[in-house]
Amino acid sequence: MSDVAESHIELETARSALWRRAVGVGVITGLLPVALVVTCYLQQGFVAAGRCATDLVMPVAVVWMGLLACTIWHASLRNRGPAFAFFGLFALWSIVGNGYFNRSLMSRVEAPLVTDPNPAFEKWTTLPDGREGQLPLDAAVTLGGSAGLISDGFAEVYRDGERIVSAAQAYHAGMTQTIITTGTSSDGIGNPSEVGRELLVSLNVPDEHIFSIEGENTSQEMASLAEFLQNPPQAWLEQINASVGEKYQIGLITSAFHIPRAIRLAKTNGLDLIPLPCAFRNEQTNRPFLAASLVPNAEHLANFGQATKEILAWFLGR
After folding, report:
1. Span of 3-12, 215-224, 235-244 with lowest mean pLDDT
2. Are 90 and 62 in contact (CB under 8 A)?
């Protein structure tokens, strides 16, 4: 047999072995999604299994399974270095994209859910312990960033739109006399304070009971609020039946993860605000374990990024 023929046979043998190895890695990797879907079906039926299957074909989960496949591939070739490296990435991706981990992380970032006088602050009849004064509040400040323009003249709330909803609920429950919206867009289009006002009016909050201040970020918003309270407009004083220089009762409505940073910045500006957290990421409802919760997804990664941002802000003293 010629050298060329022998080389061809060796090449075909190598290709065949490589193909069999690739198939084997694919089969072993595929056991994970199959096991998760079947487990979800046994736990909560067809709909839960379908949702799990959908999560598994999303990009975040595909990357997750790809890292597992790379780990198995290099392990089968006894490439210990790459195998350990890919396994480390797989483990890290499993953790940062895990719902339980991110809920736990968020619980350390978010302001705690008030249980007394009521978890829903729009149902408060008294202020929490340690707070002087009486309801209704003079104003509830709802921070921007929770709504925007989808197209010209058409506003909608974003994921943190509970800020707008909670402000309207608090007003209609008689908890606050006025609402102060905040925020300025850097490009001047769809200023959050104006969008917030528009949405609040659509929720039957009278326009004359809504006031607005500027600020492109939380730091600027708090500086604007301090200026507003130092030199309040006469229209606002008339609404709350107060005069300049009085001690005002002001609540701060924003997402729970944002409350600690916003309160820190408020204190920097000499403001003593009553925190009114909403839009919680850390769901405290007790639910049974579902295998699909082990699948990393974009929402969990977004929560991880948000928590990391708040932790970094705390570390930098912002």
Report:
1. 3-12
2. no
